[in-house]
């Protein structure tokens, strides 16, 4: 783990630190130079961890690095070395079992990895060597080799694209195996270079490998004979990543820049960081308590032993003389070994099997999520995904608490992204506003639109006639801007590989004909098309647009000033056929308005704001004419910035900002994003479950706010506390003062004046209790978080947190991705360290998904990055409800019960053994036979609890889903707090005492049979053990609320097995045993009537309080609700008919009144 | 590694297990079940308790300390351990008949047979008659493994060495002292006597012990433990077996003999008795006491009032609780009856 972090850190540093130089084709730049090939790693991918030779030592080392395994190893070694009461087998066998199983599993996985590695490494590729094409194995590729890749092959290493078979110097790739995005991406060859690769002499200078898939900086120097080398900048668009697949392109040539373990894919091959769950923390705390119990037990016994021995005659009575060795030893050493012996004797209180069982429960339990058919989405043909890939990885450290399913319970805060999560990210062009005039598309009515999937009906011709309001020029300019200012591609037919697809397209493209990274762009291009301007595609730097008169206009694309979430805008610079150079820019209003002439703004601002309140996503479009000389400067600057190796992004940003000024605003667009299915119901359920929902979005406040209303996160009665740039603007005073004032004000309102209702406690929806909603935007948030003085900052933060905690919902708009994570972190680390859950679908949500305790990815439209980084991926937002309320709740109850039960059953297992020390002269005499000691946790009592922890449903899933309030029962880790732990511990103590002293009283006369014969110590132990096994099993049976055949089988099966085993174990003289201690003990025990009676008595007496408690608790507890006779559903019947997707954001009258 | 399951994931199987919809029995502890249940259990327990209590009360026990701590005791002279083969008498009088089959126990207190070192120090192979271990006793037998470092001890170990070696003879004092016949058979577990412990097959038995030595504390070697009855001699001597079954607690009693004979098979008649004790076993050193116990047994074994009382208490508790519950639930109108 540490090493990984270190690697990551180093990797990040290296980006700026060094660069590497690569000689294309291993040819020196000048003939004269002696070529010394630089050393890079070879192209072998090694994902396997072990070889045949180092498997055993390395694997063992890895396994024993785990603290638990190490602890058991120590116990085992103590048993081997010191004279201890139990044979090393008792602890060695379980440990050996665990270690072996883990080793076998890891060995198998490693074998699979070896196989996969070999497949990749031995793959035959074609390399150009001295002008000849040579087939070689993939692993032999060296950095600098020129590699040929054909269509549908994956790239064997990271390549710089030199030559493509396509005429427009591009190639298409899919990175499905890298980031899951299956759309075709265009990559470009190095511009303006000699196409004869045989004679090409060039060096590439690029940064050292770094894991970011989307970043690459480099430059290429091409050496011609006796000329200054020509310099070309290289970016991610030139880099073909290992693991990606070539599509739509016959073949390409590329030069290897990163190979083997230095490829971006290999660098990205790393597990996610471990998130420690609340359950895990509880387990660790409980473990500590039990360790203390263990140590104090051993200490007490050791002390008492030596106190007791000082009495005359006790230390060494004549019948129990010590050996010479025992007599001579050092007193303190003897004390120490005695202590160790006691530790060994009592070590069963912390059993190996608990780790195994918890691990198995976690592993198997999470399958239920992936198996759930309700999570299946027919649209994308996928169900839920539990990202267990790191499980395999982390099991490398054996039995780590590797999964966080238990997080799903006790979630207190949900952070949700808006776009694509709350909304469908299914964009539809609604209207535009050109030069202050509104152009509304009236044709498709609300109802019609709701039935469509892709929004626009292409056939409606009459729409082309815009209402003639703005000037024709402006209109056309605006529509051209929409057609040109984007990075949309026209999708080619799959069977067309020659790259001439564009010619055949004549406007008949279906709506799926456009591919873009963001659905907004598609919606805009579609919108332009509806108004008569069709984008036909790109052909070698020429964008072709069909205008209203069905004429094709060609624009030469000079530069694309890429979109990024910080600038929140993008631009293109194009040159029209008439030689005009134009810059078109589109972006968020906040980023456009400051950059255009102010008189234009006012006309449009109104429209933008109104559209935003209606929940539409608005973009403003601006343009600027560039004179030739102006352009030349810009061009030079851009090129220079692109070529720089250091701080390229910063430099580019600077140039972009310079260029995108003094533009004139043409208009604005409004795109609608529909709500997800059942978004409102889901949000309502979450709030009902006592979970606070925070919406974190990059969107405009008005848009986000109306979405919140639509999702019923804000109700009509909700009083909104707004902390945005708008409310902060108060003329004369500084923002910070105003901020403080507002914070104080809101704090008073929401925290101090509010009745002291704690979160998670019942919150009624009646009007008597004022609900508060809080709104903050990115700029203000950074003001809050990064205040000028430290003291202020912390007080701001506290005020902010306190206000937020008292609000039902919080909306954070205009968030940068990193700010989202900041907020999550802020809440996560706040008082009480609440469990947080982040849900999102896009790359911008990754940071918050990683930050939160539970990260959930929605399999949305914005690629797969969120899914890849999540703990769980679900197809739709609505599935969150079941995931949390049903799966999370059940999962938590199961694992919490499992943990508590495990501690309990080992406490009452070991307590009699401890008490027995008082009756055997503190001699570490075990009460139970070694077989019982070993098998108790492995065989006799493990299966029932495992089955319970997999199938128990104390409340039916349907009921859990319907009654969100039930989730509050488990809020704040309710079942694993100290209270329940104390209860279980006391129960264990009570049982332990009862077992031991009950039998002790019985043995006050050990003649228990009608033939007068007496029972000995092994009979004593066996009676206690029998009571123990039956009691703990029946205790579990009492707790079981959902008796499937599995439960019946394991519970009664365990008891039967115990009985059978005891007969068997005591029925045979086992040749491998030194002492036949248990021979006939069990059978003899059963032949005694009083033994039966005492067993029955003690079992009943132990369970009596439990039965009473259940009776008393029932009327209040959730259990009563289960009596509903309807909750038992017929198998396979879906109780929930698919409810209608909410067709619209909201009905028009619902939202517009706010503001 | 690329995740293949993403592409191939189909709709999950619709089985009851995967959908967590296994048919299940969902029991509820409702008042309607619990109250009658408690009454039934309570009554049953009270019944058993009464039976146990009465049975236990009917068991007669006569327990006598003969350690010889008090000077008045006849065994005082022996308790110092200075007189070899010291004999002492323990007198007692029965006013009523001691009914039924009477069992003769000896008891020890403050004696830690359950001490780990004591219990471990046994060679089970020896005791199962394996003559190889006669000459090569296990190391766990130390310090009673070898005498003088070379002569193996059979049976070896602390447990065997410390075998209780007081012997008792019971006489009824009529006119002359009339010996009460004591039967030493059937005092050890059947499984111990017939399976677990075996003599070597060598005949005579003595030859099997050639080259070995008796445990230091034993007055005579194992093959002379019972010369009258070959089936009770050597390693299957029942006194030895009884001793070797370690008691669980430091105060214990072990079965010594059953009182048999035509006159005593159904009980000891009233009268004066004496027990002639061959006092060999030192216990004063470790502050232990020695006792003889005469007791008859019933179906529940020896006398033990605890179980009967416990059953009565728990039974009445159940009944009381069910009454309380009945009152509570009647008051609140059986909130969820049915």
Structure, described:
The complex is a heterodimer of chains A (1155) and B (338). Chain A has 1155 residues and is an alpha+beta fold. Chain A contains 40 helices and 33 strands. Helix content of chain A is 44%, strand content 17%. In chain A, the strands form six sheets. In chain A, strands 14-33-32-31-15-27-30-29-28 form a nine-stranded mixed β-sheet, with helices on both faces. In chain A, β20 and β21 form a beta hairpin. In chain A, α3 crosses α9. Chain A is elongated and about 120 Å long. Chain B has 338 residues and is of the alpha+beta class. Chain B is 29% helix and 19% strand. Chain B has a five-stranded antiparallel β-sheet with strand order 1-13-4-10-9. Chain B has a four-stranded antiparallel β-sheet with strand order 2-12-7-8. A two-stranded antiparallel ribbon of chain B has the order 3-11. The longest helix of chain B has 28 residues. At the A-B interface, α5, α11, α35, α36 and α37 of A face α1, α2, α4, α8 and β10 of B.
Structure characteristics:
heterodimer; A: 1155 residues; alpha+beta; nine-stranded mixed β-sheet; nine-stranded antiparallel β-sheet; 17% strand; disordered C terminus; B: 338 residues; five-stranded antiparallel β-sheet; four-stranded antiparallel β-sheet; 13 strands; 29% helix; extended
Layout of secondary structure:
The complex is a heterodimer of chains A (1155) and B (338).
Chain A: H1 2-17, E1 19-23, H2 55-64, H3 67-81, H4 88-121, E2 124-129, E3 132-137, E4 146-150, E5 158-164, E6 170-175, H5 176-179, E7 181-188, E8 202-207, E9 218-222, E10 230-234, E11 239-240, E12 245-247, E13 251-258, H6 264-268, H7 278-309, H8 324-328, H9 331-346, H10 352-365, H11 367-371, E14 385-386, H12 389-394, E15 411-417, H13 418-422, E16 423-434, E17 437-440, H14 446-451, H15 472-484, E18 489-490, H16 501-504, E19 514-515, H17 519-530, E20 534-539, E21 542-546, E22 552-564, E23 569-576, E24 581-587, H18 589-592, H19 598-613, E25 616-626, H20 628-643, H21 648-659, E26 664-675, H22 679-688, E27 692-696, H23 701-710, E28 719-723, H24 725-728, H25 735-752, E29 772-777, H26 778-785, H27 790-805, E30 809-813, H28 817-828, E31 835-840, H29 846-851, E32 854-858, H30 865-869, E33 872-874, H31 879-916, H32 930-940, H33 942-951, H34 957-962, H35 978-1002, H36 1017-1039, H37 1045-1067, H38 1081-1086, H39 1089-1113, H40 1148-1151
Parallel strand pairs in A: 15-27, 15-31, 27-30, 28-29, 29-30, 31-32, 32-33
Antiparallel strand pairs in A: 1-8, 2-3, 2-4, 4-13, 5-11, 5-13, 6-7, 6-12, 8-9, 9-10, 14-33, 16-17, 16-26, 18-19, 20-21, 21-22, 22-23, 23-24, 24-25, 25-26
Helix pairs in contact in A: 2-4, 3-4, 3-9, 4-32, 7-9, 7-31, 10-31, 10-33, 15-17, 19-23, 20-21, 22-31, 25-27, 31-33, 31-35, 31-36, 33-37, 35-36, 35-39, 36-37, 36-39
Chain B: H1 5-8, H2 31-58, E1 61-65, H3 76-79, E2 86-94, E3 98-99, E4 102-108, H4 116-120, H5 124-127, H6 131-135, E5 146-147, E6 151-152, H7 158-161, E7 167-173, E8 177-179, E9 182-183, H8 190-196, H9 205-208, H10 238-244, E10 252-259, E11 267-268, E12 271-279, E13 290-296, H11 305-331
Antiparallel strand pairs in B: 1-13, 2-12, 3-11, 4-10, 4-13, 5-6, 7-8, 7-12, 9-10
């Amino acid at each position: 783990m540490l090493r990984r972090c270190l690697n990551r850190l180093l990797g990040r540093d290296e980006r700026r630190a060094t660069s590497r130089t690569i000689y294309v084709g291993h040819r020196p730049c000048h003939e004269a130079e002696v070529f010394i090939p630089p050393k890079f790693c070879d192209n072998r991918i090694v994902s396997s961890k072990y070889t045949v030779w180092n498997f055993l030592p390395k694997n063992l080392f890895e396994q024993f690095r785990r603290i638990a395994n190490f602890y058991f190893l120590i116990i085992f070694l103590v048993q081997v070395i010191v004279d201890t009461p139990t044979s090393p087998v008792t602890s060695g066998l379980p440990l050996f079992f665990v270690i072996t199983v883990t080793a076998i599993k890891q060995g198998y996985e490693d074998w699979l990895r070896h196989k996969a590695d070999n497949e990749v490494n031995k793959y035959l590729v074609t390399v150009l060597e001295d002008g000849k094409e040579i087939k070689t194995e993939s692993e032999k590729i060296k950095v600098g080799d020129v590699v040929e890749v054909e269509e549908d092959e994956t790239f064997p290493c990271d390549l710089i694209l030199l030559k493509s078979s396509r005429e427009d110097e591009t190639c298409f790739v899919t990175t499905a195996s890298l980031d899951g995005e299956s759309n075709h991406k265009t990559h470009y060859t190095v511009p303006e270079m000699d196409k004869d690769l045989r004679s090409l002499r060039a060096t590439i200078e690029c940064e050292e490998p770094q894991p970011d898939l989307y970043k690459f900086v480099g430059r290429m120097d091409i050496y011609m004979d006796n000329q200054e080398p020509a310099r070309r900048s290289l970016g991610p668009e030139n880099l073909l990543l290992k693991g990606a697949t070539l599509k739509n392109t016959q073949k390409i040539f590329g030069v290897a820049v990163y190979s083997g373990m230095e490829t971006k894919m290999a660098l990205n091959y790393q597990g996610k960081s471990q998130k420690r769950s609340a359950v895990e923390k509880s387990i660790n705390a409980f473990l500590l308590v039990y360790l203390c119990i263990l140590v104090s037990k051993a200490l007490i016994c050791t002390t008492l032993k030596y106190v007791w021995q000082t009495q005359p005659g006790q230390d060494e009575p004549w019948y129990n003389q010590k050996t010479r060795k025992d007599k001579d030893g050092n007193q303190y050493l003897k004390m120490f070994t005695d202590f160790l012996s006691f530790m060994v004797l009592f070590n069963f209180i912390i059993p190996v099997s608990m780790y195994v069982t918890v691990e198995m429960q976690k592993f198997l339990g999470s399958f239920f999520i992936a198996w759930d058919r309700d999570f299946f989405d027919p649209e994308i043909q996928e169900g839920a995904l539990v990202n267990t890939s790191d499980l395999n990885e982390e099991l490398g450290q054996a039995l780590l608490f590797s999964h966080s399913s238990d997080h799903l319970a006790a979630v207190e805060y949900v952070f949700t992204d808006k776009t694509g999560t709350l909304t469908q990210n299914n964009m539809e062009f609604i209207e535009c506003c050109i030069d202050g005039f509104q152009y509304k598309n009236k044709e498709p009515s609300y109802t019609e639109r709701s039935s469509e999937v892709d929004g626009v009906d292409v056939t409606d011709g009459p729409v082309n006639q815009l209402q003639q309001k703005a000037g024709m020029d402006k209109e056309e300019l605006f529509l051209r801007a929409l057609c040109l200012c984007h990075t949309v591609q026209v999708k080619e037919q799959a069977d067309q590989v020659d790259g001439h697809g564009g010619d055949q397209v004549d406007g008949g493209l279906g709506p799926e004909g456009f591919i873009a990274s963001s659905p907004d762009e598609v919606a805009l291009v579609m919108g332009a098309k509806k108004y008569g301007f069709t984008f036909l595609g790109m052909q070698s730097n020429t964008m072709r647009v069909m205008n209203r008169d069905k004429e094709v206009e060609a624009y030469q694309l000079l530069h694309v000033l890429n979109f990024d979430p910080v600038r929140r805008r993008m631009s293109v610079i194009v040159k029209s056929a008439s030689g005009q150079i134009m810059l078109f820019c589109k972006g968020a209003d906040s980023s456009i308005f400051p950059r255009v002439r102010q008189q234009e703004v006012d006309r449009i601002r109104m429209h933008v704001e109104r559209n935003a309140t209606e929940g539409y996503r608005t973009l403003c479009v601006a343009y600027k004419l560039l004179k030739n000389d102006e352009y030349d400067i810009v061009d030079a600057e851009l090129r220079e910035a692109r070529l720089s190796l250091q701080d390229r992004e910063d430099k580019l940003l600077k140039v972009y900002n310079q260029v995108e000024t003094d533009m004139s605003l043409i208009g604005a667009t409004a795109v609608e994003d529909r709500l997800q299915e059942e978004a409102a119901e889901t949000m309502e359920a979450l709030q009902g479950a006592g979970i606070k929902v925070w919406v974190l979005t990059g969107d405009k406040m008005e848009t986000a706010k109306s979405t919140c209303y639509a999702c019923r996160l804000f109700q009509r009665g909700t009083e909104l506390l707004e902390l945005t740039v708008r409310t902060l603007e108060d003329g004369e005073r500084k923002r910070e003062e105003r901020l403080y004032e507002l914070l104080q004000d809101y704090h008073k309102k929401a925290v101090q004046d509010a009745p002291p209702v704690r979160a998670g406690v019942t919150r009624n929806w009646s009007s008597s209790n004022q609900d508060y909603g809080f709104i903050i935007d990115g700029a203000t948030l950074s003001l809050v978080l990064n205040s000028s003085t430290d003291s202020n900052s912390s007080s701001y933060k506290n005020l902010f947190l306190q206000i937020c905690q008292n609000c039902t919902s919080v909306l954070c708009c205009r968030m940068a991705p990193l700010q989202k994570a900041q907020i999550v972190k802020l809440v996560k680390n706040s008082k009480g360290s609440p469990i947080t859950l982040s849900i999102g679908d896009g790359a911008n949500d990754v940071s918050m998904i990683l930050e939160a305790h539970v990260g959930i990815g929605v399999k949305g439209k914005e690629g797969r990055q969120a899914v890849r980084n999540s703990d769980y991926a679900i197809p739709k937002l609505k599935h969150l409800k079941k995931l949390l309320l049903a799966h999370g709740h059940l999962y938590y109850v199961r694992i919490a019960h499992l943990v508590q039960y495990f501690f309990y059953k080992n406490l009452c297992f070991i307590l009699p053994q401890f008490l027995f020390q008082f009756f055997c002269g503190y001699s570490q005499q075990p009460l139970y036979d070694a077989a019982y000691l070993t098998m108790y946790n492995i065989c006799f009592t493990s299966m029932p609890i495992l089955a319970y922890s997999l199938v128990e449903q104390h409340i039916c899933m349907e009921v859990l889903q319907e009654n969100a309030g039930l989730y509050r029962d488990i809020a704040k880790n309710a079942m694993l707090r100290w209270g329940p732990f104390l209860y279980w511990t006391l129960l264990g103590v009570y049982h332990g005492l009862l077992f031991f002293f009950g039998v002790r009283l019985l043995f006050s006369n050990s003649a228990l049979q009608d033939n007068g014969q007496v029972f000995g110590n092994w009979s004593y132990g066996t009676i206690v053990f029998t009571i123990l096994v039956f009691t703990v099993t029946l205790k579990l049976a009492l707790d079981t609320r959902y008796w499937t055949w599995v439960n019946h089988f394991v519970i009664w099966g365990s008891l039967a097995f115990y009985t059978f085993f005891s007969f068997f174990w005591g029925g045979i003289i086992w040749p491998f045993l030194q002492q036949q201690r248990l021979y006939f003990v069990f059978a003899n025990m059963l032949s005694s009537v009083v033994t039966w009676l005492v067993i029955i008595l003690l079992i009943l007496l132990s369970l009596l309080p439990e039965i009473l408690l259940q009776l008393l608790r029932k009327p209040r507890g959730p259990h009563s609700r289960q009596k509903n006779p309807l909750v038992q559903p017929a198998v396979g019947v879906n109780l929930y008919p698919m409810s209608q997707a909410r067709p619209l954001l909201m009905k028009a009258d619902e939202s517009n009144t706010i503001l | 590694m690329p995740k293949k399951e993403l592409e191939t994931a189909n709709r999950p199987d619709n089985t009851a297990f995967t959908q967590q919809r296994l048919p299940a029995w969902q029991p509820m502890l409702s008042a309607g079940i619990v109250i009658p249940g408690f009454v039934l259990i309570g009554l049953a327990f009270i019944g058993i308790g009464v039976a146990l209590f009465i049975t236990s009360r009917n068991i007669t026990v006569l327990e006598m300390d003969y350690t010889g701590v008090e000077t008045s005791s006849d065994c005082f002279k022996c308790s110092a351990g200075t007189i070899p083969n010291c004999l002492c008498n323990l007198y007692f009088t029965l006013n009523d008949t001691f009914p039924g089959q009477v069992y003769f126990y000896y008891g020890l207190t403050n004696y830690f047979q359950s001490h780990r070192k004591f219990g471990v120090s046994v060679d089970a192979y020896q005791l199962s008659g394996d003559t190889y271990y006669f000459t090569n006793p296990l190391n766990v037998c130390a310090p009673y493994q070898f005498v003088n470092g070379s002569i193996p001890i059979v049976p070896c170990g602390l447990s065997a060495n410390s075998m209780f070696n007081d012997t008792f003879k019971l006489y009824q004092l009529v006119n002359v002292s009339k010996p009460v016949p004591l039967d030493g058979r059937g005092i050890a577990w059947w499984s111990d006597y017939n399976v677990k412990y075996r003599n070597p097959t060598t005949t005579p038995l003595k030859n099997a012990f050639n080259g070995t030595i008796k445990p230091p504390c034993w007055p005579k070697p194992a093959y002379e433990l019972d010369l009258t009855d070959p089936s009770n001699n050597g390693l299957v001597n029942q006194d030895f077996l009884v001793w070797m079954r370690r008691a669980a607690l430091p105060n214990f009693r072990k079965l010594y003999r059953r009182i048999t004979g035509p006159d005593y098979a159904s009980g000891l008649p009233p009268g004066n008795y004496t027990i002639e004790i061959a006092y060999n076993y030192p216990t004063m050193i470790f502050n232990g006491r020695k006792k003889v116990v005469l007791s008859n047994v019933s179906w529940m074994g020896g006398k033990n009032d605890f179980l009967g009382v416990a059953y009565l208490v728990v039974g009445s508790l159940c009944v009381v609780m069910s009454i309380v519950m009945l009152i509570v639930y009647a008051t609140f109108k059986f909130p969820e009856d049915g």
